[in-house]
Specification:
Elements (H helix, E strand, L loop, with lengths): L8 H12 L11 E7 L6 E6 L1 E2 L4 E2 L3 E5 L4 E5 L6 H4 L1 E7 L2 E10 L2 E8 L2 E8 L2 E7 L5 E2 L1 H7 L1 E2 L16 E2 L1
Parallel strand pairs: 7-13, 7-14
Antiparallel strand pairs: 1-2, 1-12, 2-5, 3-4, 5-6, 7-8, 8-9, 9-10, 10-11
Length: 172
């Protein structure tokens, strides 16, 4: 879990002001929002932010953020430039529904951000037990083609490398 430390009182005041203004989770000016939704209980926001690098054919960073308007509870990875190597994407069609997921591990837990048709959310797992699931309370803003380009490939999906391709495979 990312922790922020301020060394001066003016920095601390600025941090408190930013957190209290609801800006704690907003993607920065140099970032694109690839995923965003408000949880069903309306107390938490789930976001994916990335820095677009068109010259390199995609993105140079990816970062997951979860928290309230008052504070970010999880920012992963702390250094957004490490996001591509730390997060894995896969997608497929299941019948007529498009399903996708983005997985990452942090401090012994596995997080899975996912979308299924118009629904989306995040799950937290430890070993093979799901500890929590937070569903979006609204249709999420999700740029899955860009998430696929910004993240690594989740080769542990049922389709292997094909599950990360531009055209999602079809589940039978």
């Amino acid at each position: 879990m990312a922790r922020r430390t301020c060394t001066s009182s003016s920095s601390a005041s600025l941090l408190v002001l930013l957190l209290s203004s609801g800006a704690a989770l907003a993607c920065a000016d140099d970032e694109a929002t690839l995923f965003s939704c408000l949880a069903k209980d309306q107390s938490h926001t789930i976001e994916l932010c990335a820095v677009r690098d068109d010259a390199a054919g995609g993105f140079q960073s990816l970062q997951y953020r979860y928290g309230t308007a008052e504070r970010a509870e999880l920012t992963f990875p702390e250094n957004r430039d490490e996001g591509r190597g730390a997060m894995s994407f896969a997608h497929a069609f299941d019948g007529n529904a498009y399903v996708w997921s983005l997985r990452f591990a942090n401090e012994g837990y596995t997080y899975r951000l996912f979308g299924m048709g118009d629904d989306a959310g995040v799950e937290v797992w430890r070993k093979k037990k799901r500890l929590a699931q937070v569903m979006c309370g609204e249709r999420p803003y999700a740029m899955t083609a860009d998430i696929r380009k910004a993240a690594g490939c989740d080769l542990n999906n049922p389709f292997g490398a094909a599950g990360c391709g531009e055209v999602p495979p079809q589940r039978k």
